[in-house]
Amino acid sequence: MLEIDGSAGGGQLLRSAIALSVITDMPVRIEDVRGAREQPGLKVQHATAVRAAAAIANATVEGATSGSRTVEFEPGRPSGGRHAVDIGTAGSLTLLFETLIPMAVVADAPLRLRATGGTDVTWSPPFAFLSRVKLPLLRRFGLGAAVDLERRGFYPEGGGAATLSLFPSRVDPVRLPKPDATDDVATVHVYAVASESLADAEVAERMAATVDEELTREGHDVRERVIEYASTASPGAVVTVRGDLPGTVREPADAVRPTDGVSEPGEGVFESRPAVGVSALGEPGKPSEEVAREAVDRFREFADSFGAVDRHLGDQLVVPLALAGGEVAVPTVTEHVASSVDLIERFGLEIEIESREGGTDGAILRSPGIDSV
Fold first, then answer.
1. Which pLDDT belongs to residue 261?
2. Residue 48 located in a structural domain
3. Are 275 and 136 within 8 A, CB to CB?
4. Which of 48, 9, 16 lies closest to 31, judged by CA?
5. Would residue 192 count as lying in a domain?
6. Which of 46, 189, 220, 336 is catalytic?
7. What is the DSSP string of 59-104?
């Protein structure tokens, strides 16, 4: 059983360790989980993710309860079918799904997991980032995954619901080098969501309009503004900005269509563009325009960076890169990237970090991949 020091990272270290355990068929014991955090041990959302992975992978697990600081996980083989979990709080559904998405490379049948919790909450990717940015990018490299949103859930009540669908996948090498200087963001799409209780104040419209005005003034082509109001248990708002890079990618016929809403393998070949995305979450008392400008600032930070992806997506691509091989230009080597690379090496996989010359920010992550994928 591989022993992992859980204090070397937070929830992402735990989620990655569980996913890699299933993929490599290597039992793990994770000690001092989130030991360096102010409130160490598993929170409800972490325990739910471990139990969901155990159910899907037919694993034996100990310590998958709230407050536990040690988890033992002995994986089986992922099976298809339908599963359901309830986080019971506003814990992040997108982070729960992040634990399971890499398992598509060892799945032998399609599976679906319906989960309830928070869809758009702090310290996690908003739902639009997962559905509009990350999953379309992973599908480009052959990973069959899709999400269907049933109901929005903001902090503190949560109450959101969504379904993750995974399909058996063989992934191609991930190639995301830094675009040439002439390959700036081609088009911008803005997705603004708010609770129905905020409709009279036009919160979603104001967020989208501010993003459009700011980025259009800087020469970006804002091609789409999607405005949505949702019935939610707690009031909230979120804006996500997706930037499509030049160049069309034709996705294979067995990929999952990103817009069909039924989470079934697509028929024929459809087109998409590689994309990057940033988001900002509303807070009580914070003006809509201020929320929008936070997203715009993060978009500018990416546009001026060395990376081919934003820093948060760079964190989340470390495990897929280790499985598929290839290279990714990241704007900075975050603590999440560094701890994930160390973890991956514990599982016998390889990732090389090539820092830019002169110590400037940004790096290339390279991996030969894993033979069994």
1. 36
2. no
3. yes
4. 9
5. no
6. 336
7. -EEE--STT-SEEEEE------EEEEEE-SSS-BHHHHHHHHGGGG
**Is 197 among the domain residues?**
no
Residue 129 counted as domain residue: no
Q: Which pLDDT value is given to residue 182? A: 40
Q: What is the pLDDT of residues 359-370, one digit of tens each?
A: 567 899 999 998
Quote the CA–CA distance of 320 and 199 in Å, as a whole number: 39
Paired tokens of 304: 């001026």
189 in active site: no
Q: Side chain identity at 313, as an amino acid letter?
A: L
**What burial class does residue 358 get, using C-beta atoms within 10 Å of its C-beta: 0-12 exposed, 13-18 middle, 19+ buried?**
exposed
User: Alpha-carbon torsion 257, 149, 134, 246, what sign?
Assistant: positive
* Closest residue by Cα to residue 53 from 36, 33, 28, 89: 28
Supply the pTM of this predicted model. Answer: 0.90
Q: What is the number of structural domains in the chain?
A: 1
Binding residues for ATP: 312-316
Structure tokens at 133: 């940015």
Q: Phi first, then psi: give them for residue 127, nearest 5 degrees.
A: -60, -40
Count of alpha carbons within 13 Å of 288, Cβ hemisphere only? Answer: 21
